[in-house]
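Figure 2 data, in text form.
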Amino acid sequence: MTIVDLLERNAAQYGGDTALVEINPEEKHHRRITWHEYDLVQPAEGGGKRREITWSVFNERANRFANALISRGIGKGNKVAILLMNCLEWLPVYFGILKAGAIAVPLNFRYSSDEIKYTFDLSEADILLFGPEFIGRVEAIADDIDERHLLLYLGDGCPSFAEGYASFVAESSSANPNVPLTEDDYAAIYFSSGTTGFPKAILHKHRALIHSCRVEQNHHGQTRDDVFLCIPPLYHTGAKMHWFGSLLSGSKAVLLKGTKPEYILDAVSKEKCTIVWLLVPWAQDILNALDSGRLKLEDYELSQWRLMHIGAQPVPQSLIKHWLQYFPHHQYDTNYGLSESIGPGAVHLGVENIHKVGAIGVPGYGWQAQIVDESGVPVKQGDVGELIVKGDGVMICYYNDPEATAKTLKDGWLYTGDMAMQDADGFIFLVDRKKDVIITGGENLYPVQIEDFLRGFDKISDVAVIGLPDERLGEIAAAIIQLKEGMTSSEEEIQDFCKGMPRYKRPRKIIFADVPRNPTGKIEKPLLRKMYGADHLVDAQNKS
């Protein structure tokens, strides 16, 4: 079975039920958008734009695109890159590529023109499908893309250098193309987030995608009655693989275009969402809005909301304890994974283990995990080592990069580059990225531990710790601190708070500034190192 079989099943069994809803709270003036013969625009209650499609229409749209691709000679072995913001068209396009037997290549919507060209070339894609937001960036590289490749535009006002999606699919059938697929066929190339360097192309088979569906439903128990609120970008494995629980259960999902606390609570309330996946900054923003009184829970219908889960980065214990003060009935889960392990779930806390908040958890459904030393030998319980994982969700390779593949895949194990330790109960705690470890005067400092401690200070909204060069100690810990709105503080006040840590762990430098995060919520430490002159430290570590 592959995930396209699940879509066909849902269309057959639940065809008239809503599959996907798109909400854009900030689009006040409705622009009539017709996606082939289906008019999809509805005014949203309270303003903005709301669109939806059923499982039957979802499947038909995927079939049309698949048949159009096949008519142009695109099939097994070919690749189609997707450069779209989250929208109602995103997932049917993705499934159309898979139904044609081709390989889907989602691209980060933050990519510059050069990065779009780099990832397009690295993946050896045949088609670049892009939306209105990217016209300028794609036009800048259009002449550099060989005429054998197709630039396909999805949106109104097709630019002259591209072919329009509507005309591309106009004559294609909505019937299932019935391309034979197995779990051993190649399905997708995802790109690493680039938090430790330029993105690598990650190749997965259909086996990994269907495994992700099973992992997600096993962990979070999605049923037909659940409604999943999806906010993170669909180009990333995290958002899509959590949505796979909705695919497997045949339940509705809501794509929310906006991260403001009021948008999130409003969507949960009006769409009757039961499951919400948040990133740390968004959860913290909701808490800040509730603490300040700017938002009030009684203004929303939230009783049906049963599960809040977080992934993509370490989660402060203090945040979850604070969250449960407002939402004591919520189940909570932490999900750990990488694009190389088809996103979330390789390790997870489990809703039954909320007493272990702070841990990333235990091996997920169908996964194995170990913590090993530099030689690949498991370390003693309680010692720090590198986390490695094994299961059907592990990537096939870094596409066109055998050297990087050999460093990361060993005897079926994926070496994550994350430092971790396991407590006496078998729960795994993330310590830090291997490349982020700060060595000061011969002592290893793990920035995540320092960041978690600093988040306990009630004036701090966000924090990142990096190493800065030091003539005597080699490097020192520097804390970039983003204060809550309206708050003021001083270096002396922060250092006084840090007296609760062992002296050697205390940051030697305090910098008050915004903490940059990428669209999946990860702190952009390479950017911080470049900003503060520490990037050569990581270069030196990589060479050692």
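Caption note: Residues 3-220 form a domain with the Rossmann fold fold (CATH 3.40.50.12780).
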